[in-house]
Amino acid sequence: LGVVGIKDRDVVMKLVERLEDEDSAVRSAAVRALGSLGIRDRDVVMKIVDRLEDGDSGVREAAVRALGELGIRDRDVVMKIVDRLEDEDLLVRRAAVRALGKLGIKDRDVVMKIVERLEDEDSSVRRAAVDVLVSLGIKDRDVVMKILERLEHKDSDVRKAAVYALGSLGIKDRDVAMKIVEKLEHKDSNVRYAAVRALGLLGIRDRDVVMKIVERLEDEDSDVRDAAVKALGKLGIGDNDVVMKIVERLEDKDLLVRYAGVEALVKLSDEPEAIEKAIKKIRRSRVETKTGLQIAIRKFR
Questions:
Q1: Which phi and psi (to 5°) does residue 153 adopt?
Q2: Residue 284: its pLDDT value, please?
Q3: Which of 10, 182, 231, 292 has its CA 20 to 30 A from that of 196?
Q4: Global pTM?
C-alpha cells in the first residue's frame, strides 16, 4: 500500500491497526507502509513512535526509519529516536544515527549522543556517526574536543572514526590542530598514526605543525612513517628541507613507505635538488621501487 501511495483515511487506519498485529513481520510492514505514505497525522505518528519500544528489533528499526523519512522534528519524538542510539541491536542504532542526520538535528545534547556512537562496537554504526556529523557540519568547539578525545581510545577503529570525522569536518582552528599535534608523541603508534592522518586531512600548513609531521618520517612504526609521507604530499609542502626528508624515505626499509615517497615526490616536483637526488637513487634503489621512481622522474621532467 505504501508503494502505490494510497492515503484513504480508512486504509490508513487499517494499517495503524496492523501496528498491533501479533506477527512482527506484519507490524514492520505496516510501519514501513505508513512511512512511505508520508502520513504525518499526530495520532498516527505517535502510534509509530510506540513501535520504537517494540520487542522485535526489525520493527524498531522500521519505526526509526519511518520517523526519519516523515521528517518528524517534534522534540519528544526526536528524543525517543535518541534513546534508540543505545539499542541492543546494531541495525536499530545505525538507523537512529541516520534518522537524526536526515532530520538535520543540531541540538547540542543530541549531537553529543551521536558523537558517543564513534565508540560503537559496530563499524557501520561508527561510520554512520561520522557521516552524520559531517553532513550536519558540526564545528562546535566542545563537540570537536569530544571527538579529539577519541584519538586516544583503546580501540583503533574508534580512533580511525575520530580521525575521519576531524578531517572531513575541516576544523582548521589552530588550538584544535595543536591538540592533535600533541598526539604525535603518544606512546601508542596507532594514536600517532591517527594524529598524522588527521593533520593531513585538515590541510594544516602551519610551519610548526608541518615540522612536527616531518619528525614522524623517522617514526619507529612504518604505518606512521607512511602516513607522514602521504600527509606531506597531500599538504603540498614544497620546502626544500621537507622534500629532502621525503627523498630519504625512498630508502626506507618498508615497501609501502618507499612507494608513498615516490607518490609524494610526484606531487612536489618543483624542487630541482630533490629531483637530482632521486635520479641518483635509481641506480642503487631496491628493485621493486625502480619502476615507480622512473615514472616519478619522467613526471618531474
A1: -65, 145
A2: 52
A3: 292
A4: 0.70
